[in-house]
Amino acid sequence: MSRRSYTHYPRTILWLVPGGAMPADLPAVHSGGPDRAGVAPFYLSKWPITNEQLEAFDPDYRRSPLSPGDRDSAIGVTFEKAEEYCRWYAEVSRKPIRLPTEREWEYACRGGSATAYFWGNDAAGADRHAWHAGNSEGRAHAADAKVANSFGLHGMAGGVWEWTVGADGPVLRGGSFRTPADELRSDLRRPAAPDLRADDVGFRVVKPFRSG
């Protein structure tokens, strides 16, 4: 690919996630460290990487019929391909770009909450915030069609499983459009092989608040 200014590519919106502490009464977060340990501020994609964004990096990428729109979440993406996208986007943007750690992802998902779901303890609230097995018609949709969490992030539950970097390897977080609403807890996780290619898996990216 020829080198061009990154302003010529469809770009993700990197949203500031404020620093803070995980609620002290939560079970241990799988990415390591006590829950009372602080999480430094960072920027996270406001929604998962879309088809048009992934195509800018990989012209050979073929959209799934389960996610056909420009702004629908890119799916069928392996952990390895997601890391390649991060390296490419870091090069064209001249910014440090990477996948979120599992701890960062859960902190961002919860948006300061200590409840089972980021919207509360009742799964009935899922329809406002998530695409899930009961409302998705079996396919991916644009994440911003649902209400954001308190940090302003869309699609942190349901929609597409998202790759994160866990303490022992890749971990999928958040559930997907196939996940029942009552399973979309903020601690939902699934370790996976880095070469897994599934039609309900995507990713979002992180830029550290401070580099160097």
Précis, in short:
By secondary structure, the chain is α+β, with helices and mostly antiparallel strands.
Textual characterization of the structure:
The strands form three sheets. The protein has a four-stranded mixed β-sheet with strand order 7-6-5-8, with helices on one face. The model has no long low-confidence stretch (mean pLDDT 91). It is an alpha+beta fold and 212 residues long. Strand 5 (161-166) and strand 6 form a beta hairpin. The protein has one domain (6-208): paralog of FGE (formylglycine-generating enzyme) (Alpha-Beta Complex), CATH 3.90.1580. The two termini are 27 Å apart. It has helices at residues 51-57, 79-93, 102-110, 126-129; strands at residues 14-17, 20-21, 38-39, 42-45, 161-166, 169-173, 189-191, 201-202, 206-208.
Give the helices and strands, then pairings:
Blueprint (H helix, E strand, L loop, with lengths): L13 E4 L2 E2 L16 E2 L2 E4 L5 H7 L21 H15 L8 H9 L15 H4 L31 E6 L2 E5 L15 E3 L9 E2 L3 E3 L4
Parallel strand pairs: 5-8
Antiparallel strand pairs: 1-4, 2-3, 4-9, 5-6, 6-7
Spatial arrangement of strands, main beta sheet? 7-6-5-8
Quaternary structure annotation: single chain
Q: Which band does the percent of strand residues land in?
A: 5-15%
N-C termini distance? 27 Å
- Tally of separate domains: 1
- Tell me, rounded to a whole number, the average pLDDT: 91
The total count of helices amounts to 4
**What general outline do the C-alpha atoms trace?**
globular
CATH homologous superfamily label: paralog of FGE (formylglycine-generating enzyme)
According to DSSP, the number of beta strands is 9
Structural class: alpha+beta
What's the alpha carbon Rg, rounded to whole Å?
16 Å
CATH architecture: Alpha-Beta Complex
Give me the CATH fold name.
Answer: paralog of FGE (formylglycine-generating enzyme)
Helix/strand order, N-terminal first: EEEEHHHHEEEEE
Mind summarizing the main beta sheet? Answer: 4 strands, mixed
What ranges have pLDDT less than 50 throughout 5 or more consecutive residues? Answer: none
Helix % is 10-25%
